[in-house]
Amino acid sequence: MKQWTNEERYRTYQESDKKELQALHETIAASRWREDYHVQPVTGLMNDPNGFSYFNGKWQLFYQWFPFGPVHGMKHWYRVSSEDLVNWKNEGLALKPELLSENYGCYSGSALVQDDDLYLAYTGNSKDYELKRHPYQLLAKMDKEGRITKLPKPIIYPQTGYTEHQRDPKLFEYKGRYYILLGAQNEEKKGVFLIFESNDVEYGWQLKGELKVRGYESFGYMVECPDIEKVGDKWLLLFSPQGLEAEGDRFQQKFNNVYFIGDLDLENLEFIPDGPFEELDCGFDFYAAQCANQNVFENAAVMCGWFSCADYTCPPTEEQGWAHLMSLPRILTIEDGKLMQRPAPDMKKLEGEVLFKAENGTITADKLHGLMPRTAIIHLENPSLQSTELSLYSKNGRRGFEISYDRNAKVLTVDRSALNHQINEEFGAVRRIALENGLTSLDVYVDRSSVEIFVNNGEKVVSARVFPEADERILRMGGKDINLSIYSPLKSVEDNFII
Ligand code: FRU
After folding, report:
1. CB of residue 104 inside a 6 A radius of ligand 1
2. How far apart are the first and last CA of the chain?
């Protein structure tokens, strides 16, 4: 694979690069792993969701973007939009590094809707001539025509008492004032949260101090992408700590995206959790999730995550010039003290032709004849909590992508170890998820290079990138008293070239 020089990595997009990117996009668009209903990079590499919000009658979602190839380098922001969280449109380049305070990239950040403007708070990754990093928190605003203006000066300068790792501002309002929650590393190399306060979004930001989570001193060696959101009468604190240890079957990714449910006491700079932190996704590829700044769904939040993880590689698509995806948006609610995550309600609209249907062992539709479609939405109901299994993409005589539930152990196993293409297998190719009350349902969203499994109507989610080759095409299903329906999803992302 191509070795990227620093010069090639730290390049800012110019109008004159359009032809080069268009050619790259043409090759990429021919990939067998381009998705039908997931947001994917127009070219190059996508990472964190940024600036997620509901503004001007639409969902606005930006992503961290390196335009020129499948590597981390000079980060730009690219924007997509949607009216229903299902159909997404490419809108084009949103932020590119231009200021000295962002000379090594426009890093992650969030959005806040204020009347006719969408404020975007983000980290200017700046390096000096000795390549020492200086993090600045910057602000831009987008109007209803999509025009973006940057404030020339940082709203927050590098803070003393912390290392160069200070980033990913979450801008929010609380009791009539503005706040920024920032991920940081203290001088003992521990991950902490900082809180800044102001009466005006554009000026006067002051450090209030560290937001402490009661019962915890710090989290790993760095906290990335912190997020805070009110859901009903509770608060959700989401973050991506680096350096957590795996615990048995949990926290198996290189870095994990976790959450607390609890109460926020900003006056005393304290978050009071109701219980220990949990992982947002029990699968293989999920990180840096962000909730939308919105008021559309009542008592619910809307979240997107990066369908990958920091330091992960994706060789099958890297060879084609692109890397990574966005997760499906998830609607978050808190029910009986538990976080529930479900696909957007309009995902139902994507369910096209019925390919297979079986109720209580009676098959009423079977257009598959044992062949795995490239995309599918699978609903499985398991009313009598039986053991069951689904094997996607197996090859003659070999296992494929295996989803199986063992009723005696009350464990759901998701195993991608038998597939041709393995990615990041040093972080495990098998996940075991304990289901205290058994398995009642699975909703499985299969796109051309990804599988997302919503377990028990949103109690757990398991995300996995998969790269099936043409000969991995057998579908097997097993189990008694199971209701199963498989739909062919419609396409809801256009793979068009817009910069
Ligand atoms: C998380 C992250 C953020 C940073 C961004 C840079 O994946 O490392 O902390 O702002 O990616 O692209």
Report:
1. no
2. 26
